[in-house]
Amino acid sequence: MTARSALSRRGFLGTSMLFVAGSVVACSSDPQGTAAANGADVTLTQWYHQYGEEGTQAAVKRYAAEFTEAHPGIAINVVWGADVSQYETKLNAALLGDDAPDIFELGDFRAEMARKGQLEPLDDVYGAAKSGFNKADLDYLTVDGKLYAIKTMDDIMVLYYRKSLLKKAGVTPPSTFAELTDAAKKLTSDGTKGLFIGNDGIGDSPYLLAWSEGVDLIDGDKVVYADAARSIGGLRDLHADKSVLLGFTTDWYDPGAFNQGAAAMQWCGLWALPAVEKELGDDFGVLPWPAYDKKGRAVARLGGWSQAIHARSKHVAEAKKYLEWLWVKQTDLQIDWAVKYGFHVPAQTEVAAKTPEFGKGAAKEAARISTEHGKSFPAEWTQAMQAGFIAAAAAVAKGAAPARTLDKAQAKAQADLDKQTV
Amino acid sequence: MTATDTPPLHTDAVPPAPAAAPRRRRLSERRAKILAFAVLTAPMLIGLGIFRYVAIGWSFLLSFSEARRTIALGDWVGLDNYQQLLSDERFRGSLTMIVLFTALIVPLTFAASLGLAVLVNRVRRGRAFFRTAFLLPAAVSYVAAAMIWKMSLFSGVPSGLANTLGALFGADPTPWIQTQSPPLYWIVLVTLRLWLQVGLYMILFIAGLQSIPRHLYEAAELDGAGPWRTFRSITFPMLRNTSVAILLLMLIAALQAFDEFYTIFSTGASLGSEPVRTPLMHLYGVALQDQDYGVGSAGAFLLTLLIVLVTLLQGRILGFARDKD
């Protein structure tokens, strides 16, 4: 009896030890250690966020394999990561540690990352091809005269409108904010709202309103968006007659509300164009956000993803070689990446012109809007600035005094900006 | 008499050797027990030390230093981070909001789960069924439940459940989450939290109820006490310790609210347009999105301080783990 219980105690201890040892081994080995490092001298780790489109993961692995075939010494370990909402947080955490990726994607480019020495300058990767890239992108990715990332796709956001509904209501595509408000009102009928800009009724509109009045968010080292008090004040008029769709099941980035006829106009991305086309045929068109008034200008937000190299990577030269090979030289792969899975504009203007999908119809118009009206957030823009700005705009939409509310938020954002640039 | 005259007393009644042996055995047994304790608890304690206490200590130091996009210490700024947060209207607003929210949700959850526990405990048949049925929501993740509340129950479209019910009574479709005057979003937030939490606390109350001696109820019945009197004079006082512990858990859970607020108000981009934000939502943005670990840590300690204060206050008023007398 005693012997048996002693044995089982020892057995228990042994098992626990095995368990602990097993966990230690499991934790210390790289969970993504599936790199095809056969015979390669250098293995680069490359992080992607999780694209929703089918086939994207296989595609980036194929690009990596093709590169290794052409450059046998360098293997790429593609890490398919978190979805958009979590990706930046995880990337930021990884960049603080020793296991940081060599190459990674950036959604919102942050100048602070470059200033804090986290990003490697990439001017030599662009080389002579630099002039062929979308000008708005180059401005966006330049910090203190150096380029720190390379755009892999341009996502332009546009105003989709239903041609037949506009015709029925007797309105023409709006070219000023007043016309937009008026059109939204006339298009609102039983079961259909005039305009959908986001479930919160705010979405990107504060940015678009400021830009469309000709006001920037940041000018040099000053936050200046309070100058747009007049146009942002327009949010109240927009909401006054309940012509804006609120609380739909999917949000503005999904074409659901537009496709199902819950809204006659929707602010959404170019990525939704194939789905809209499939559902509505040619009964739709795209517009930039209209100029605020005759003195303003039409704008569209330019998003998309870029890739950058970690400045502390041990293989900066190899990583640069890879980015240059893929995103500067391999135009076929760039076109494949832009239009075969989702629907994006290639960042090099010439490549975009060569892409057959952008040769006609609404897609062609969207590509034009991208180069002529595209505008990105300033690279100094932070989450805190965004939250403060949007909160102020939301308060204005509810009836707060525009100038005073925006001034207050602007002062806070200025303090934030000052902290970044010291 | 000199020392040399007397031979050593070898003729003692108890021989020394057998006396020492059990003591030594007892000692080595004790040592073995200590060793076993150390071996078995060390992995846990070391893990706890490194991943909890070192991290907490580090974060405390970070709260006094300028740490943007780094967790390195050294750029000391004193109380600047605390001052910056406390002068931030949005953060102060979130603190006020969370205190009000706690003051509202805790009594509600408490009353609902206690009431449900008493009812379920009285059921004669199928008690296990009801217990499980009410506990099940506790197994649902906050995020998943918040999505259901947001997209199907309280969505703004006419086909949402709340709007479908409303249409039966002739009401127009309402955007529940976006309507701010009156603040209908509170209906969404409060019903969600109740649905998720009541079951778990109900189980704890049932455990408390079952430990109340039956003879007290029998005596009360003999004395002719009605159900309300029995509840007021026996059940509730006998549940005192359970209640105090549950209140504590509820307070902490309410002050740390994040998941459902974040999910319900998120727009696919950063936040900003949400009508109410919790302190953790604010800190998530500051620390994890803007990478300002200094200010983020300062906020974490301010929130901790708030939780400690509320807990102490509650202990002061109700007495935590005090004897039953």
From TrEMBL, chain B:
GO cellular component: plasma membrane
Keywords of the record: Cell membrane, Membrane, Transmembrane, Transmembrane helix, Transport
Pfam family, one: BPD_transp_1
Transmembrane segments: 34-55, 95-120, 132-149, 184-207, 238-258, 293-313
Region Disordered, residue ranges: 1-25
Keyword Transmembrane helix: yes
Residue span, ABC transmembrane type-1 domain: 95-314
Subcellular location: Cell membrane
GO process terms (BP): transmembrane transport
InterPro entries tied to this protein: MetI-like, MetI-like_sf, UgpAE/MalFG_permease
The family this protein is said to belong to: Belongs to the binding-protein-dependent transport system permease family.
Protein name: Sugar ABC transporter permease
Organism encoding this protein: Streptomyces triticagri
Lineage: Bacteria, Bacillati, Actinomycetota, Actinomycetes, Kitasatosporales
